[in-house]
Amino acid sequence: MKPHSLLLALCLTSSASAADFAAWTHRQTVNITQPGLTRLELEPTLLDASRTADGAAFHDLRVISPSGVETPYIVALPRITRPERLGAAEFKTTLNPASTVLEFQPPAGNTISEVLLQTNAGSFIKSATLEASSDGTNWRTLASNELLCRQNGTERLRFTFAAAPWTHFRVTIDDARTAPIAFTGAQVRRDLPELHTVAQPVTIRARTETTGETHLKLDLGSANILLGHVRLHTPEPVFQRAATLLSAHATLFRLQHEGRSAEDLGIEADQLVTTREVELVIQNGDSPPLRIERIEATRHPVPVVFQADAVGEWQLYIGNAQSAAPRYDIAAIGDKLRDASAHSATASAVEANTAFRKTATAPEVGDVGPEIDVSPWSFQRPVQFKEAGVIVVEVIPEVLARTANDLHDMRVVCDGH
Fold first, then answer.
1. Cα separation values, 322 from 54, 169, 319, 387, Å
2. Which residues contact 284 (CB under 8 A, 6 or more apart)?
3. pLDDT one-digit tens code per residue, 5-29
4. Which range of residues forms the domain containing residue 42?
5. Does the pLDDT of residue 333 top 90, yes or no?
6. Within a domain: residue 21?
7. Mean pLDDT computed over every residue of the chain
8. CA 80/CA 57 separation, integer angstroms
9. What is the DSSP string of 10-42?
10. What are phi and psi of 92, to 5 degrees?
11. Per the domain annotation, does 214 fall within a domain?
12. Looking at the 3D structure of the chain, how many domains does it have?
């Protein structure tokens, strides 16, 4: 019995062109008004167009001068892993009849955006007021009647506020209703300019309830963004849930105490997300799922730094998964460039590259293959297509039923080749 085989008939042509950037899908015009080192924050629309075949984010970005010369660059991702919290100095505790006063100083020369108190107490709820000073004499209230707590795995011992160069802090703990507890120290979080974030729209695309878990599919609106902070908005008055987003874990909670509320509804992701959608998982245990009204998110800006040798209209090209990651010599001095003073630039809207050609993205496979005698093949299936380039053909069940299990007897044929 003759073996059952398949003959596919189609023609493929391919070409590649790097000089005219026909293989790049998108571009953006950058207006350079001053020559020299230039810094530009890449827009989410541009990042979303990036195509990465080997997992190296933004490797398909190219910076082209007005004269058409490819210019080396670095993508100055923020150092989000650099330690942020510093131990406070001169920590002093004063015990009053109805309050405990904590005084301490941050290391000199830092812009502070958070205070975190330290205590070994196991279970408590306290009301506290935070004051700050830049000279140790004149004080400003940054937070009043804030709830501090540690209960059943829930902990809230921090104050967050607008970053400023404070030199002294004072925390007054209300002990009128409960016995004092011992605070052993404090840490401050210094604000790093490169860690500033901007709002990033996010949409809940789907919600799935499984046994003890809520799965939320979040659409970030763009791929390849450096996700910062994600915050839930829920009307639930009292709850505590463990949550996971990417590799970040957090305990989300809200509690009520004597007419006041304390909560922590945020997850610090600080991760590069190469997909448009991510999944947020909330552990409910035996509790009913939370009502979730909306979710807010922030992202870290992604700046590109390059040496502009001329004024005029520069071009950024992106969107070519076939392009190899560039190996620029300035990568060796990337740390120096990211912190160097640089001119800012303005960019137009991201647009489709009108010179893009699908055939330019195809690998070089030769014009034609060897001649073939198709008489030994028992079956064939014609394939039609409208344009040359990379063609994807679904192998239908009728074909699979007639070919070998490993498809070794399949051929693609055009004009006898």
1. 9, 55, 9, 20
2. 212, 213, 214, 241, 290
3. 444 433 333 333 334 788 999 999 9
4. 26-74+302-354
5. no
6. no
7. 87
8. 16
9. --------TTTTTT--EEEEEEE-S-EEEEEEE
10. -135, 140
11. yes
12. 4
